[in-house]
Design brief:
The chain is an alpha+beta fold. The protein folds into 2 domains: 28-62 and 222-316 and 506-564, FAD/NAD(P)-binding domain; 70-98 and 167-213 and 318-499, Glucose Oxidase, domain 3, CATH 3.30.560. Helix content is 25%, strand content 22%. Strands 1, 2, 12, 13, 14, 15 and 27 form a 7-stranded mixed beta sheet that branches. Strands 8, 19, 20, 21, 22, 25 and 26 form a 7-stranded antiparallel beta sheet that branches. Helix 1 packs parallel to helix 14 and helix 5 (141-151) crosses helix 14. Bound molecules: flavin-adenine dinucleotide. The site of flavin-adenine dinucleotide has 43 residues, from helix 1, strand 13, helix 8 and helix 14.
């Protein structure tokens, strides 16, 4: 028997889940949800809320009880910890000098929301209007806004843009961010970009501070926010260390899943629906393992074809980013979090009042800007970190280096293009569910994406050269002043650029089975009782970070699922 144990971390305001045996006597459920990530935890809460339906949530990873997950800055370590992380590696990409990239994904209750950087960002209105205009009725901005608000317990309270009293805490850290952030914001003022006090409110453009999914110094993962409050429900069963290996299909109807739970193979049957919420890498993998995908590819990999759906695993999008490192004349978070005594001070401060650098993200401020005339929307997403660290895409020893600040005062300004147009794929390499799929990124294959890279690099330097930020810049440490020409900027990007982990679009929503995987109600084309609900259903990646949009997708999906099964 498997148990979900008590939460050992002292999180006063979160009720610990009840201790109870969770292997069910009966293996038939109304809904089976695969994956307890950003989307899966929301679904588990909403679909079990009435008490009418028996809901099974299956998660390949384990408990999220570790302080590394609950303390916000712990993500510097879970970033490369296989205990909580799928640790994917992409295929070599010519645009990145033939390098592979490391792609962390959460493998734990809460999924990637348990190890992300906690920035809460919905993106631009136009992102969703484009989803709707691509043939997906119901997904325009005015239709999705109520679902963003539904989840929210927003620090600004309920208003036209925000919700209050919802499960997901969204906090503001204006009183806690590092003083260098103000210099960054003032440089934006001086350049005429203007400020916003709320990127998720009226003004989504300009310079500002990020809001974060943190409640009283503790990570507001979807596990903490949505799953934990629902754990006491007798109609909700959560199994951890449960790797779903295929969807059980009769003809083209989902009737359950086959799963290995702690080494024991089991089948679970569903009366209503199977919902895949395994994320942008695993959901397309699972569909393919189950015989739903491009028929030729499935046959080549030895998987019997149930339904030819060529778009499964295609269309992969992500935000590709590079950081510019600036040495600083004044102390930065490197001075605080580098030396052992600084770490002790930060630890004490956190233990004492849940505040300080450990209680929030190091990614504290940023901007959405247009880098050229004639753009209808911002095309660049900038990040300001009052710290510098090297997130190598190649392993150093057993780990990837994210956790160590540089041994000198410095800060980072990073950028990515908001709406990349390059698309890659996620395809199984064999019929073995334990083999990782092949992730092909095809980054920077369009002139649009390449133009943004050059303009982004020049924008970062313009900001760093503008007072009052310029006043404290000692020198550009990386890539260095010698990198000036377009060719040199690309060469540097190829050497150092990497993902900001917003993988999406691999089971895209759309009206045509030839080019999409799910319809506007997130039902897999040509199949019955099978949906996908996670980042993979985005028709195109949103302009900003992706956790809030995934939570919105799950909120809307829950309503559609309940309505369709009423
Ligand atoms: C390091 C990092 C930093 C990020 N920073 C931010 C940020 O600051 N702000 C932001 O908005 N977004 C951020 N993101 C992105 C954001 O967290 C993701 O887009 C979002 O969490 C994806 O949600 P999902 O439900 O699609 O997938 P996930 O949350 O990844 O959930 C998928 C779940 O399914 C489980 N699963 C998969 N396959 C199976 C299977 N076969 N059987 C059983 N279980 C399975 C997985 O273990 C996982 O728990 C970040 C992501 C990462 C990795």
């Amino acid at each position: 028997m498997q148990r979900l144990a008590r939460h050992p971390f002292p999180v006063q305001h979160l009720k610990p889940p009840p201790e109870r045996a969770i292997l069910p006597a009966m293996n038939e459920y109304d809904y089976i949800i695969v994956g307890a990530g950003s989307a899966g935890c929301v679904l588990a809460n909403r679909l079990s809320a009435s008490g009418q339906d028996r809901v099974l949530l299956l998660e390949a990873g384990g408990s999220d009880r570790s302080p590394l997950i609950q303390v916000p800055l712990g993500y510097g370590l879970t970033f490369s910890d296989p205990k909580y992380n799928w640790m994917y590696t992409t295929a070599p990409d010519p645009a990145l000098d033939g390098r592979t990239s490391f792609w962390p994904r959460g493998k734990v209750l809460g999924g990637s929301s348990s190890l992300n950087a906690m920035v809460y960002m919905r993106g631009q209105h136009a992102d969703y209007d484009e989803w709707r205009d691509a043939g997906n009725p119901g997904w325009g901005w005015s239709e999705v806004l109520p679902y963003f608000k539904k989840s929210e317990d927003h620090v600004f309270g309920a208003n036209a843009h925000h919700g209050a009293g919802g499960e997901l805490a969204v906090s503001d850290f204006a009183d806690q961010v590092h003083p260098l952030c103000e210099r960054f914001l003032k440089a934006g003022d001086a350049l005429g970009y203007g400020r916003t006090s709320d990127f998720n409110g009226e003004r989504k453009e300009g310079f500002g501070l990020w809001q974060m999914t943190i409640r009283k110094g503790v990570r507001a993962s979807t596990s903490n926010a949505f799953l934990r409050p629902a754990m006491h429900r007798s109609n909700l069963t959560v199994l951890t260390h449960a790797l779903v290996q295929r969807v059980l299909l009769q003809e083209r109807e989902a009737v359950g899943v086959e799963c290995v739970v702690k080494g024991v193979r089991q089948q679970f049957r569903c009366r209503k629906e199977v919902i895949l919420s395994g994320g942008a890498i695993n959901s397309p993998q699972l569909l393919q393992l189950s015989g739903v995908g491009d028929a030729q590819h499935l046959r080549a990999k030895g998987v019997p074809v149930v339904h030819h759906l060529p778009a499964v695993g295609q269309g992969l999008q992500d935000h590709l980013c590079v950081s510019y490192f600036f040495k600083s004349k004044v102390p930065t978070l490197n001075n605080t979090l580098g030396p052992w005594y600084g770490k002790v001070w930060a630890g004490m401060r956190y233990l004492f009042n849940r505040k300080g650098p450990l209680g929030m993200s190091v990614n504290q401020a940023g901007a959405f800007v247009r880098s050229r005339e004639g753009l209808a929307q911002p095309n660049l997403h900038l990040y300001f970190n009052p710290i510098s660290y090297t997130a190598n895409t190649a392993p150093v020893g057993k780990r990837f280096q994210l956790q160590n600040p540089d041994p000198f005062p410095a800060f980072l300004i990073s950028f990515n293009t908001c709406r990349p147009t390059s698309r890659g794929s996620v395809l199984i390499q064999s019929a073995n569910p334990n083999d990782k799929p092949l992730i092909t990124t095809h980054f920077l294959t369009t002139s649009h994406d390449r133009q943004d890279i050059v303009e982004g690099a020049r924008m970062v330097r313009r900001i760093a050269a503008t007072a009052p930020l310029a006043d404290i810049v000692e020198s550009e440490h990386l890539p260095g002043a010698q990198v000036q020409s377009e060719e040199a900027i690309f060469a540097d990007f190829a050497k150092r650029g990497g993902s900001v982990y917003h993988a999406s679009c691999t089971c895209a929503m759309g009206p045509m089975p030839e080019t999409s995987v799910v319809d506007a109600r997130l039902r897999v084309h040509g199949m019955r009782r099978l949906r996908v609900v996670d980042a993979s259903v985005f028709p195109s990646v949103t302009s900003g970070n992706t956790n809030a949009p995934v939570i919105m997708v799950a909120e809307k999906a829950a309503d559609m699922i309940l309505a369709d099964n009423a």
